[in-house]
Amino acid sequence: MSKASKKMGDMRTGYGEELAELGSMRKDVVVVGADTTQSLKTSLFGYKFPERFFNIGIAESNAVSIAAGLALAGKIAFVSTYAAFIPGKCVDQIRNAIAYPNLNVKIVASHAGLSVGPDGASHQQVEDIATMRVIPNMKVLAPADEYSTRRLVFVMAESSGPCYMRLARPKSPVVYEDDARFAIGSSNILRDGSDVAIIACGLMVAEALDAADILAEEGISCRVIDMYSIKPIDSDAIVKAARDTGAIVTAEEHNIIGGLGSAVAEVVCEHAPCIMKRVGVKDTFGESGEHEELLAKYGLKARDIASAAREAVRAKQRIDSR
Amino acid sequence: MMQAQDLLRLKEIARRTRRLIIESVAEAGSGHPGGSLSAVELVVALYFHKMRHDPKNPKWEDRDRFILSKGHAAPLLYAVLAQAGYFPIEELKTLRKLGSMLQGHPDFRTPGVEYCAGSEGIGLSVGIGLALAAKLDGKGYRTYVLLGDGEMQEGQVWEAAMAAVKYRLDNLTAIVDRNGIQQDGLTENIMPLEPLAAKWKAFNWNVIQIDGYDFEQIIDAYNKAEETLNRPTVIIAHTTKGKGVSFMEWSPQWHGQAPKKEQVSKILEEMGLL
Hints:
The complex is a heterodimer. By secondary structure, chain A is α/β, with parallel strands linked by helices.
């Protein structure tokens, strides 16, 4: 039985260290930065392989387009900065220069969701899953912790074509043991249960595990799924969860429109209609505040997920008793 | 100096290219003749004189790369690629039609197309990526990027201008089709670009200005760009939108409007092509 541990990890450190490791294994990996390379820890790759590391400065559209050119010439190009800027500032370049020609560019953005905290709404990217998800050829990943971030760096490098991965800024609870497996289009059941399934991504996975603890004390049996691959999405796992439990709750640090909840709802309503509740940022901009305070204010804590799950279970029972 | 024979050959290819542009755009019923006609000699000189490329092996690793950043001039690129032997000239009749390899803007389904331009302002950055990769791989291929002048109103062009100098990309040549006209009118009325050469000089590029219809000047500029070390070159080619068709020249109206099929023979006659 998996449980969010008290041990903490750091997604950016995981990303930077594995990228440098990937660089030693593969000579065709290049890294493009946009002035935030210390923060993203891509500088670790830069120290080891300065000739394959390009800091383009505060010019994100240019950076992603240069990455496209490098990929055209046969490189695997990783390009990174904060999610507010990539993809936030350059959806056009990502669409036309990377996704349309299906190039091998891996976009990894940190500080996604509300996790940038005190910097406020301008920097809190809660739209990126939606904007990347609707672009053909683009794959979208949102790892739950440092370990899964590390594994997904390699998964991305082995997959062909464009991919977007969103990371959080703060240190985050360790969710995975060292033997977990990851693949694009897959998901992981972290805890099994029969009354309701919580499908979460990113930092919300740890909150979902805490929510499952709360619910367990009330006698509600809860399945928790880490849906780290949002596109392509693991439809089979969603359909199975819908059929097994009859009640699904999604949780994401993203606008409630267009993100994980929408992606799950698309599968549920076409293939296995059931009661569904979505936990996310309710189509509003954020504000300055500590990350934890923001999660509480915007209804993204374990207790909010638990409360949505309770509602879903009650709604299911009302229908069953008719 | 060029051999007189070479010059005649290039002029003949340019004439034929103009004819193919007019015919294919008229057949398609839509497209951008103005900006295609204005840059004919610049692109013909690349594919039929300057660039190392192999139409039988479009993915040859050491080929020089050409990026048409002003993607709306696709009819020009297609006419040149077809004549070079990348695909049969007959295909030009399918331009912009459903199922065609010749999309409205360049796309990888066409052999010889290096980049799917269409959204303005991106091509020079992509060219930087190619040029960086060439240096990294120790390869001698050169990258040429053709920009529209109106396109330089996009800020990203100037982001790219900074980056190419940082990385001393002497294997990158930008070519500006300075025809002075964009969709809504004169560039200098819509959003002035001048002093354009001074801007590029201030960004520390090697700047060459030429008459965009004089093959000797064009080829001399390409050669000088290749000889220039440690910095990129921009060739500002002074051109005329709609070049070669009297009623299209200097007319913003013909930026994105196709001639009618019944106009074609009159146009070709006027151009001395019938």
